[in-house]
Design a protein that fits this description.
The structure holds 2 protein chains of 2 kinds. By secondary structure, chain A is an alpha/beta fold. Chain A is built from 5 helices and 9 strands; from the N terminus they run ααββββαββαβαββ. Chain A is 31% helix and 22% strand. In chain A, the strands form 2 sheets. In chain A, strands 1, 4, 5, 6, 7 and 8 form a 6-stranded mixed sheet that branches. In chain A, strands 2-9 form a two-stranded parallel sheet. The longest helix of chain A has 15 residues. In chain B, strands 4-3-2-5-6 form a 5-stranded mixed sheet, with helices on one face. Classes of the chains: A alpha/beta, B alpha/beta.
């Protein structure tokens, strides 16, 4: 019995930190793999609406984003306050959509090109005129799979 | 040579003590830049573009569920003003037609939703209407799946899902928007 007590008294209870780098590296690799770099800075205000029947966008590389909204304050002097289209990281005209889609298309492997989805991030307050024009352009360039970006809504009633 | 002997004594290993610090630094960088938010939304398939004017096919009015949204975000469903909160129920009743009424769809397969909006309609309203119509179909499919297989749609195999989707197809035609309201 005395043997145990003796041992406990002598050794200092130090935790080995030798495996700390390994743990950190593990976390590091996890975050490295899940990170998606924000490549396009938003120049328009987009406050997406809410909906219930949502589908997740699975493969980010197969998605291109089209933003529509009122330009943010620093850009209002040049661009005005009416809703504008943003493709990639700059303002664009509706006629530039086919080129934008094509630029994204050639980056995608040929087999997966049929699975490309356009995600429309459109502000709640935008009127349907510009949206209809964008939709026509998408149809003309054969991009028929469209995802209207929306948030999950709780509750069932509209006011 | 005192120098040589000193060199021999030193253990030639890279100091790995700072490895954790470097890893930490990288870790924090990636933590900050990570965006975990998943993109979700209403998946829609647009009709292909054709230059020719669409062929006018006469549909029986009983099979068409027309929804109009005007520039004031008001709804007109089959000629009657309707609140958006009852749109889902109305659509479900129309598609399924449980009482086999004369003025509602002959069968879910023949039901067609026609959606028309103004260029001045707000996007939020449009999406809400679209969402309700889609929800009506999803609920009907779920009910059918429960009746046939005792499971919800999402728990069924792909083949069975396709069978049900084939029996209750979502046919939604969007007409060209009208141009009465003011665009912003």
């Amino acid at each position: 019995m005395a043997k145990f007590e003796k041992k406990r008294g002598k050794t200092a209870p130090a935790i080995s930190t030798a495996s700390l780098p390994d743990i950190i590296f593990m976390l590091l690799f996890f975050f490295m793999t899940v990170t998606v770099m924000r490549n396009s800075e938003l120049k328009v205000d987009v406050n997406i609406p809410e909906a219930t029947e949502l589908t997740k966008l699975e493969k980010k590389s197969l998605v291109n984003f089209i933003f529509i909204g009122v330009p943010k304050l620093p850009f209002q002097k040049v661009r005005g306050t009416s809703p504008q289209l943003q493709l990639g990281d700059k303002f664009a005209d509706i006629e530039e959509i086919p080129l934008f889609l094509e630029k994204h298309r050639i980056k995608v492997p040929e087999k997966q090109r049929a699975m490309i989805i356009s995600s429309l991030k459109i502000d709640k307050a935008v009127t349907m005129g510009i949206v209809a024009d964008v939709k026509d352009q998408l149809r003309k360039s054969g991009q028929l799979k469209v995802n209207y970006s929306a948030m999950k809504r709780v509750g069932n009633k509209y006011n | 040579m005192a120098r040589k002997s000193a060199k021999d004594k030193v253990n030639n290993e890279v100091n790995a003590g700072s490895m954790a610090d470097i890893a930490f630094l990288l870790l924090i960088f990636f933590l900050v830049t990570t965006t975990m938010d998943q993109d979700k939304g209403l998946l829609v398939k647009l009709p292909p573009w054709s230059e020719e004017a669409p062929k006018i096919t006469k549909l029986k009015t009983r099979n068409v569920f027309s929804v109009l949204v005007n520039a004031n975000d008001e709804l007109l469903v089959r000629g009657e003003p309707v609140d958006i909160n009852v749109l889902r129920e109305k659509a479900k009743e129309f598609i399924k037609n449980p009482l086999k009424l004369e003025n509602m769809s002959e069968s879910p397969k023949k039901a067609i939703i026609s959606l028309k909006n103004d260029r001045g309609t707000h996007y939020a309203k449009y999406l809400a209407v679209y969402n309700e119509l889609k929800a009506a179909y999803n609920e009907l499919r779920d009910e059918e799946a429960l009746k046939r297989y005792g499971k919800k749609m999402e728990d069924l195999s792909n083949d069975k899902q396709k069978l049900i989707m084939n029996d209750i197809p979502l046919i939604l035609s969007e007409a060209e928007s009208t141009n009465f309201g003011e665009e912003k």
